[in-house]
Amino acid sequence: xxxxxxxxxxxxxxxxxxxxxxxRDEHGRVIYVGKAKSLRQRLANYFQDLAGLHPRTRTxxxxxxxxxxxxxxxxxxALQLEYTWIKEFDPRFNVKYRDDKSYPYLAVTLNEExxxxxxxxxxxxxxxxxxxxxxxxxxxxxxxxxxxRVFPVRTCSAGVFKRSAQIGRPCLLGYIGKCSAxxxxxxxxxxxxxxxxxxxxxxxxxxxxxxxxxxxxxQDAAEExxxxxxxxxxxxxxxxxxxxxxxxxVLADATDADLIAVAEDELEAAVQIFHVRGGRVRGQRxxxxxxxxxxxxxxxxxxxxxxxxxxxxxxxxxxxxxxPALPEPVEPVAQWLSERRGSQVSLRIxxxxxxxxxxxxxxxxxxxxxxxxxxxxxSDLTTRSRALEEIAEALGLDAVPLRIECFDISxxxxxxxxASMVVFEDGLARKSEYRRFQIKTFQGQDDVRSxxxxxxxxxxxxxxxxxxxxxWTQEPAGDPQGDVNGVTGSxxxxxxxxxxxxxxxxxxxxTDEDGRPKRFAYPPxxxxxxxGAPQVAAAxxxxxxxxxxxxxxxxxxxxxxxxxxxxxxxxVVLPRSSEGLYLLQRVRDEAHRFAIxxxxxxxxxxxxxxxxxxxxxxGDTRRQALLKHFGSVKKLRAATVDEICEVPGVGRKTAETxxxxxxxxxxxxxxxxxxxxxxxxxxxAPPAALSAERGQER
Length: 698
Description:
By secondary structure, the chain is of the alpha+beta class. The protein has 21 helices and 23 strands. Strand 5 and strand 6 form a beta hairpin. The longest helix is centred in the last third of the chain and has 30 residues, at about 580-610.
C-alpha cells in the first residue's frame, strides 16, 4: 500500500480548470478515471486525511502510485474524454456494468431496392429504419411473424432472393402469403417500398387509422357478400392486434423516451432501462454492477447514460430520458446527450402522471433484478464456502462459522421495542429457527441495553437446554428473564409460547425435518449484531456474564459496512468484493427485515385495539356500528343509555352493559386492552399518518 503523500502533486501544479484525471498503480496501470469541473478542488479531496475518506476511496488512493490529468475546455469535453478512457483502460475502481452485450433491433432496410425486414445488432447504418432495442431476438421474430400476414415485406437474405429470381419460383413464405414475392415480379419495386413504409408506420405507433381502414374494408366486403375477403381482413385485424399486445401502449401516442431506474445497496446496484417508442415499450435491458467506487445514485445514472449512448448513433437517443436522480452537475450530461441526438434532449425526473407510474414499474424491475442476482449468488455452493472461509480468516476464527445467528433491535421512536434473531447454516437462511423477542426489562429506547437483554435471554436458554438430561420437559412459563415471546418462520416454523416450542405429542419433542430438536440447544459459532462497537460490547458482556467464551461476536455497521470486534478500537474492513462481506450483509439485512416486520405487526395490533374489546357479549358487528355511529370511544363514553340504544342492533341491555363498562374506566387514564395488557389511545382510532411513521422506524 502506497502513502498518498508520496505522489501528491503540489497545489500550485494542479490547474483550476475542467479536466479528466487518471490514477495509476506502481506498475503504471490505470486504476481509476474521473472528471472534474475544477481539477484542483477535486484532486485535493483525495489527498486529505485517510480516516476521513470513504473506505473504497481510501483503498484506491493507497493502491495508486501516481496521478496525472488532462485539461479540457468544457465539462462536456471532460465527460466525453472520461468515457473514452474508461472504455480504453477498463479501470478496476470505476463502475463497470457486467452486461455489455449488443441488444437486437428490428431493422427495415429502406436504402435497398426491395426493403428487407430483419434482426440487426451492432452499429447503426444509414438508410435503415430501426425499432427497439428488444430484450431477445425471438421477441422480434414473433412480432414480425404476426405482421407479415398484413404487411408481406421481404425477409429473406440476398442469396435466397437472388436464387428465387433465377429459378422464377418464390420461397415458402411467398407461397403461404407472408411475402409479396418481389423476387418473381408479383409486386413492383415501388409498391413493395410503399408496403415497407406502411410496416414502419405501424411499428412507429401510427396504428389507429390503419386498423380503422381495415375494419371499414371488412364491413364493405361483408355488405357486398365477399365473405372470404371479409374473413381475411378479420384475421388480418386480429393478427395486428396480437402484435400490438406484445408492445403494450403505456404513454401518449408518439412518445419517445428511455426510462432508467436504479436499485442499489452498499455493495451492488442494478440498472433497468425501458425503451418507449411511439408510446409503446419496445425493449427492456438491464445491468448489474459492483459499486467499486463511492458513487451516488446520480453517479450511477451518469455511468448508465454513458454505457447506453456512448457507442450508439445519435438517433438512438430519444427526446426524453427519465431518471430517478440527476447527475451532478446535470448540464454537461444534458448537453452531451443533445449533441449525440442532434437536437434538444430532456433529462429529468418524472413527477406525476403516467410517466411517474411507468418509472415505478421500471424501479420494481430493477429491485427484482438485484434480488434475483443476489439469490443466484447466494445459492452457489462454492461461493458460500468461500464466504465462510473469508469470514473465519478476517475474524480470526479457528473454524468456519457453519451456524451464524444475527440479532437486530427495532422500534418506532422508543415504542414497541422488539428484537429478532435469524439463523444461517452453511450460508443459507434457516427460517424454521428464527426467533423474535419483546424487550421487557425496561421501557424506552436503548439499543445497547436491549441488545444485552436479548443476547442474555437467548444464551440463558442455551445453557438451560444444555443442562437437561436429553428428555423433553416443559419449562414453566414466567421465566424471570421474560424469555422469547412468539416465533414464526416462513417455512416450517413452529408456534412458541414464552420461547418454548410446544411438545410434539407423537415424538415427545418437536423436531425439524432432519430430526433435530427445535430448541436453543445448538449454539452458533458466530453471533452478528446490527450495529457498531457499543452493540458488540453489550453482546460480549452478556456472554461473559453467562460464562460463555466459545462463541465469537462481531457487529456490522450499516453506514460503511465495517465489521467491529469486541475490545478493538478499529474495525475490520473486508474488501468490497469479498464474498464474506456479502454474506454478513445478507444476514444483517434479513435480521432487520424480520425485526421490522414483527414491530409493524405488533404496533398494528395495538393501534387497532379498543376499550370495547373488553365488553362481554359485544361482537365485531355491533362494535363497529357503535364506533361508526359515535365516531370515537370518547364520544361513546359521554353518550347516555338511550342514545346508545339508537344504534341499529343494540338493545337496552347491551347499551347498559356498554355504558357501565366505559364508565368504569377513568376518562383521564389511558385505556387498556384486557386481552393483551397493552395501552391504547382513548379514541381507539389509529393515527392518520401511520404510513408516514414507517420512515422513522429503526
